[in-house]
Amino acid sequence: MLGLMQNRPLLISTIVDYAASCHGERNIVSRDADGLIHRTTYAVVAERARRLVSILRTLNVNFGQPVATLAWNNFRHLELYYGVTGAGRILHTVNPRLFAEQIQYIINHAEDGYVFFDPAFVPLVEQLVPFLPQVRGWIALCDATDMPAVKVENLLCYEDLLAAAEADRDWPVFDENTAATLCYTSGTTGNPKGVLYSHRSTMLHAFGACATDSLAFSACDSILVIVPLFHANAWSIPFAAAMCGAKLVLPGPRLDPESIYRLLEQEGCTTAGGIPTIWLNFLAWLEPRRSSLDLSRLKLKRVLAGGTAPPRAMIEKFRDWMGVFLLHAWGMTETSPIVTVGAPLAKHDGAAPAEILDMQVRQGRQVYGIELRIVDAEGQALPHDGQSVGELKVRGNWVISGYFKAEGGRVLDDDGWFATGDVATIDPDGYVQLTDRLKDVIKSGGEWISSIEIENLIVSHPDVFEAAVIAVHHPVWQERPLLLVQPRPGSNPTKQSILDFLSTRIVKWWMPDDVVIVESLPHTATGKLLKTELRARYHGHLAVSD
Amino acid sequence: MLGLMQNRPLLISTIVDYAASCHGERNIVSRDADGLIHRTTYAVVAERARRLVSILRTLNVNFGQPVATLAWNNFRHLELYYGVTGAGRILHTVNPRLFAEQIQYIINHAEDGYVFFDPAFVPLVEQLVPFLPQVRGWIALCDATDMPAVKVENLLCYEDLLAAAEADRDWPVFDENTAATLCYTSGTTGNPKGVLYSHRSTMLHAFGACATDSLAFSACDSILVIVPLFHANAWSIPFAAAMCGAKLVLPGPRLDPESIYRLLEQEGCTTAGGIPTIWLNFLAWLEPRRSSLDLSRLKLKRVLAGGTAPPRAMIEKFRDWMGVFLLHAWGMTETSPIVTVGAPLAKHDGAAPAEILDMQVRQGRQVYGIELRIVDAEGQALPHDGQSVGELKVRGNWVISGYFKAEGGRVLDDDGWFATGDVATIDPDGYVQLTDRLKDVIKSGGEWISSIEIENLIVSHPDVFEAAVIAVHHPVWQERPLLLVQPRPGSNPTKQSILDFLSTRIVKWWMPDDVVIVESLPHTATGKLLKTELRARYHGHLAVSD
To answer: Would you say A459 and A466 are in contact if contact means Cβ atoms under 8 Å apart?
Structure first.
């Protein structure tokens, strides 16, 4: 027997309408490349977003077809977030920081009919145009006076299109499983793969984000959105904020610490979301200025950090300097992204500061809507005891079921779990601690050894500049850790001094089977250790040295 | 094009599983009629709830069939909340305070196969049994030693059934639109009508309840659930609490102020939900004890009040005595129930206390997921200007689409709006202020006059004990207000003194066309003014008096 309740599709347009009708005057603040502030409101953003429905129709972008954006965080990008999805078209947010070849691949793969771009990206656009035969037009996100001199066919002006368009009175209504946004994962191997979010997944994820133990947004919040709109739905902030009528502050391209500080202060930001790198820079800039700036004027209460783990010292500085709680969240493009959020439990009420910090440095607890588990090499679920180490798998309504155009083939196991590629422990309270990437973990006789933990330890040795721990083949244990060390300039550490240093800090069976002192370690273009190359080079190392 | 995200049905069992796996040790505290405390956990409740799946199967309660409860707020009732719905059966929570004839009608109408009852309700059960031929068995919510001596066929013991049952390993999976719970509205006219909630509506409503600007539950909360589990899903607290792992405190039948106070204190309750009557009694009891009780030991931060409007003085007392924020919410059985919640906006940060009180006495703002509007007599939408008065209509995924078995016929208009029967204003910030019931409002020449507002004013006249304002027929204006006044014992107000009193307080066209001094006013069994009788008696009053 079915219930007798209304059943209306979960569509993104309903949150835009909610924000416009219940929080119509709430501000959306953008700062452009020149530092100029632009103010608009949910009511105006929603009205302009509804004009996009007829613009897309006129441009012959049909229901279910994608358009791309190359844009920073600003109100026009936000209008596209709501307008393109509300129209039932797909918003493909492209990361302009990728190599031009990757962008070219992504836009061709997605078959985007139009690209909406910030004028700042003219050089990139000119580079891309010859290689994007399917793009029928380029729409500059500016008004007529700011139109860039760019040699492309069918260059259109966003503001002119809007001025000429009429706003549809009602949003189209369609199946809530319809695709809404598309975001490619950069991926360390192979081509980028697309994640195609649905309206249903986006809406349930936004509900999850608004929960008190999640991002906890409220109508009282003013949110500085540093995380880019092209990065996994900007952690759902544009949707969750509209769902509760929070003020949005969009910083544009300037993310230097002083610009961030000024926005926090001027716009009364209560919360701000960005990756730890941004916050490291911010705190470094702030440290010598703490006495001259009146930090008590800030209304900042919470900082959201994700992407990588924020260091403990960062969490302490936010707490001690500003009384700000750093909320550490974790997820992936494939998970919309919110999986875990580091919200406290009742037991943390009155707990020692160190215990609260211990909690905050972890990746957080799963929010309702996500299921997660850790499994061993045979796929058996492991206990949540804070000790057992296994691959993290997730499941839920905002987790991918497959990549766009079936790239990468099947991504779920028989029970519907998505393997994150991360290795983790889960403690009895549910807090997840990532320990390694699965490809970097050393599988020694059925047990797992974290390469990252050993690396993090040995870099505190005074003679070590950088270190890499990789798995090398072992006839008995299958894999054993090999430690590669690049000494600090001028120092000359011995193998034994390295091993002695580690021996008091890790269990015996984690001890590297050998230490190799090297002149330098190979890195990727983005500065990460190139372990694939090291593994290939040292694969037979133990056999040779024995 | 559809998105490529997982699509799992929104089932109540998923929140039970979440609570059991992520907050397994979190307490569910019940107090029985004797004041004894029983403690259990989400893990145990979930395990016992899963045993109910096989119990219902054994009892031949099939998928989609209802069972009834006659029970106070306790852990066994909570287990039925999760177990019966999780099994895909329908949980019909019956209000044991109704007249036996109403209960009999309701259980027969619902066709409940079994009734789960607290032993305290034995007298009621014995009264009901002869009239409930479809009930195949009665299950006492107790263990074997507490089994009541009650003469019914097929009397079963809940704890014996549980002890004999095995917990199903996995919950059944089914369509999220499947019926989950059933609750009858008492209704002032005609027979009670059933509202049949679905899993989808219940889950979306629970998401709505967990939002920061809504009930804002968190894992850190300990929630005293005074609102009965048989009253509109207890405002969704059992579902929302499990969704975030909040501790639940279930007070059983004893709702006297001292019992409430002890639970608040002993269980570290951070929030508590109940109707204003409960809180009026509580505060009256507390007032002379404020100095002897150490109120600082309470962890209470918020009180949820709904059902009727909490008086301003109540809100002030909670604030001044305990630093507690009274969160005023509004809804109906037909709306799951949450429609509006009185959460503050950014503008209230630092606002004058009186302004915040002005906000709190209103019914609150609509939460995302609910659409609402006020319409005039022709059904035209009125502006949200805080002045325009119209009938309140609501729409959304947790609003009824029709009553059980189509009682009452069509309940939605052509655009899907449900008419609440309430008359309200909505201010530019979205705060709703109920002004009257539609049936009591006076429709004078196309404008509406609130009977309640005039009644509330005139009872502050020193000579007035009680007053009723009703619509009487008028040849020109269709309806005009007639004021009936019952004087205070010993006083003898004149018609003119009453009118003089009002004339400085309401606009001229609201002034009653006549005042009748009466000896007494008729009331319903529950103490409400019986306006139907007054309207019948005075229908032609103006024609006669002119």
So the answer is: yes
Q: Does any CB of chain A come closer than 8 Å to the CB of residue B222?
A: yes
Pairing mode of beta strands A365-366, A338-341:
antiparallel
Catalytic residue of the set B299, B301, B443, B495: B443
Contact criterion met (CB < 8 Å) for A220 and B177: no
Q: Are B56 and B89 in contact (CB under 8 A)?
A: yes
Mark B187-200 as b/e (b = at least 16 C-beta within 10 Å): eeeeebbbbbbbbb
The one-letter amino acid code at B78 reads: L
B chain contacts of residue A2, beta-carbon cutoff 8 Å? 175, 177-179, 198
The model's pLDDT over A381-440, given as tens digits with 9 standing for 90+, comes to 999 999 999 999 999 999 999 999 999 899 999 999 999 999 999 999 999 999 888 888
- Going by their DSSP bridges, the two strands A302-305 and A338-341 should be labelled as unpaired
Q: Which pTM value belongs to this model?
A: 0.91
Name the residue of chain A whose CA is nearest to B179's CA. A3
Interacting residues of A44 by C-beta distance below 8 A, sequence separation 6+: none
Contacts of A22 (CB under 8 A, 6+ apart): A245, B365, B366, B430
- How many angstroms separate the CA atoms of A139 and A114, rounded? 7
Contact between B216 and A212 using a beta-carbon 8 Å cutoff: yes
Q: Is A217 an 8 Å CB contact of chain B?
A: yes
H-helix segments, B59-188:
75-86, 100-110, 122-128, 158-164
Residue type, A411: V
* Backbone phi, psi, residue B292, to 5°: -80, -30
3-state class of A491 per DSSP?
coil
| Rg, C-alpha atoms of chain B | 25
User: ipTM of this model?
Assistant: 0.90
Identity of the residue in B3, B23, B344 whose CB atom sits nearest the CB atom of A178: B3
A–B interface: beta-carbon pairs under 8 A: 216
Q: Which of A176, A267, A334, A479 is catalytic?
A: A334
Task: Please write the tens of the pLDDT for every residue from B94-151.
Answer: 999 888 999 999 999 999 999 999 999 999 999 999 999 999 999 999 999 999 998 8
Distance from CA of B245 to the nearest CA of A (A): 9
The number of helices, as runs of H, and strands, as runs of E, in chain A is 16, 25
3-state SS assignment for residue B65: coil
Residue A499: both structure tokens together: 């091993």
Q: How many CB atoms lie within 10 A of CB B207?
A: 29
* A6 in reach of chain B (CB within 8 A): yes
Say yes or no: A23 contacts chain B, CB-CB below 8 A.
Answer: yes
> Any CB–CB contact under 8 A between A209 and chain B?
no
Would the CB atoms of B211 and A208 count as touching at under 8 Å? no
Q: Who contacts B218 (Cβ-Cβ below 8 Å, separation ≥6)?
A: A212, A213, A343, B244, B246
- The Cα A382–Cα A430 span in angstroms is 13
Alpha-carbon gap, residue A27 to A249, rounded angstroms: 8
pLDDT per residue as tens digits for the range A199-242: 999 999 999 999 999 999 999 999 999 999 999 999 999 999 99
Predicted pLDDT at A546: 45
Smallest Cβ–Cβ distance between B366 and the set A22, A204, A416 belongs to: A22
**Cβ atoms A185, A195 nearer than 8 A:** yes
Which of A304, A368, A372, A418 is best to mutate for the B interface (most B CBs within 10 A)?
Answer: A368
Task: Label residues A134-173 b or e (16+ Cβ within 10 Å = b).
Answer: ebebbbbbbeeeebbebebeebbbbbebbeebeebeebee
Radius of gyration of chain A (CA): 25
Are A198 and B404 inside 8 Å of each other by CB? no
Quote the tokens at residue B474: 């008028």
pLDDT of residue B543: 67
